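To illustrate the input format used throughout this study, we show a single complete record. The first block contains the structure-token representation of the backbone; no residue identities are included at this stage. The design step must infer an amino acid for every position from geometry alone.
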């Protein structure tokens, strides 16, 4: 889990999760703030919406950002 805490999250209702998400993606990170969880893509260096976080949990192997991130790491 990320130690960083964003100062201000704009539109938290599209990002805030009531449960702690879990994904095996190397680029998936979690930020905990004010009794909510926020999923973050380390490759994009940005928070991801609830619907995309759900996809990261279930189908991370097909994520185009993950594929690109792995390709860049191998270079």
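Output of the design step:
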């Amino acid at each position: 889990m990320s130690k960083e805490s964003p100062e201000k999250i704009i539109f938290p209702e599209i990002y805030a999760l009531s449960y702690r998400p879990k994904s095996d993606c190397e680029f998936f990170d979690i930020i905990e703030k004010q009794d909510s969880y926020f999923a973050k893509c380390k490759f994009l260096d940005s928070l991801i919406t609830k619907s995309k976080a759900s996809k990261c949990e279930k189908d991370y192997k097909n994520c185009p950002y993950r594929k690109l991130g792995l390709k860049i790491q191998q270079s």
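Structural context for interpreting the output: Residues 12-74 form one domain. The mean pLDDT is 90.
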